[in-house]
Amino acid sequence: MESLFDKIQTSKTYLINHGVKNAEIAIILGTGLGKLIEEFEILQRIPYSDIPNFPEATVEHHTGELIYGNFQSKKVLAMKGRFHFYEGHSFEHIGFSIWLFKSLGIKAMLLSGAAGTINMHWSKGDLMMLTDHINLLPGNPLIGTNDDRLGPRFPDMSEPYDYQINEEIERAAEKTGVLLRKGVYVSAQGPMLETAAEYRFLRTIGGDAVGMSTVPEVIVANHACLPCSAVIVLTDECNPDDLKPINIPQIIEVAGKAEAKLTILFKELIKHL
After folding, report:
1. Which pLDDT does position 104 carry in this prediction?
2. β-pair partners for 70
3. Of 16, 119, 145, 210, which has the fewest Cβ atoms less than 10 A away?
4. Is the pLDDT of residue 47 over 80?
């Protein structure tokens, strides 16, 4: 049976043979946040389905393409669409792209996504930089036999979000005038959203926002010693004392409107990475 390491090497060889070389930064684009690609000088656009061993995105609004191009004078790889546990993907599948990015020589990784705010001082449409997280998913990509070629058996998680990149994000927000919240992200299983009692629980344990992604990828980035940071769009307000039925089209609309702010922020940030 082909090992995870060997699968990554096969995918790496395919991408290199298709012109993906010398990329410095990787970006994962979440729900409703794909238009950042319009700012790229695109060199290659590769469907996930063409990449050996690469999972396929099945969620609406997740296109499922790996974009390679020039952005702010840097070579950048962007995932337009990500993978979630609730789709039926294994945690290894969810983390696969991160190990692959590391093998390609990526030096820093940025993640974006959508989440609900459980901090009632904030509003939908705000951006939040992750300072820490709480993993409530029923597992993670590191469970099982460890391959030391990919990372250590017991990776440290005292600073899951790179301090230096986070400082650059704050500087970029200040320079561009983008309002930036900072908080703790909770990763829940999904695909259902939380009950009022669950939102109260998440707030009690220290969460500021809740979503269904990001944390598995960040765990792998730390395992691979790949500096990473994440900025999410707060797409809905999860007030347990006034909980409204979920409106998915409205969430997508909020993410789309906030994307302009995220694009401004990432453009300024990537200049200095």
Report:
1. 97
2. 41, 75
3. 145
4. yes
Query: pLDDT tens-digit profile of 72-129?
Result: 999 999 999 889 999 999 999 999 999 999 999 999 999 999 999 999 999 999 999 9
CA 215 to chain centre: 8
Contact in structure between 130 and 232 (CB atoms under 8 Å): yes
As a whole number, mean pLDDT of residues 148-164 equals 97
- CB burial string 216-239: b at 16+ within 10 A, e below: bbbbbbbbbebbbbbbbbbbbbbe
In the chain, where does DSSP find H-type helix?
4-17, 91-103, 163-176, 196-204, 215-223, 248-271
H-run or E-run covering 110: strand 108-117
Say whether the peptide bond before residue 227 is cis (omega within 30 degrees of 0).
Answer: no
Alpha-carbon distance of 109 to 107, in angstroms, equals 7
Contacts of 229 (CB under 8 A, 6+ apart): 108, 109, 110, 111, 129, 130, 161, 162, 165, 166, 169
Cα end-to-end span (Å), the chain: 39
Query: Residue 67: which of 95, 89, 47 has the closest Cα?
Result: 47
Size of the chain, expressed as the number of residues it contains = 273
Whole-number Å distance between alpha carbons of 97 and 76 = 14
CA dihedral 198→88→143→231, nearest 10 degrees, is: -60
Residue type for 157, please? M
User: C-alpha distances in angstroms, 69 versus 66, 99, 103, 114?
Assistant: 10, 20, 18, 24
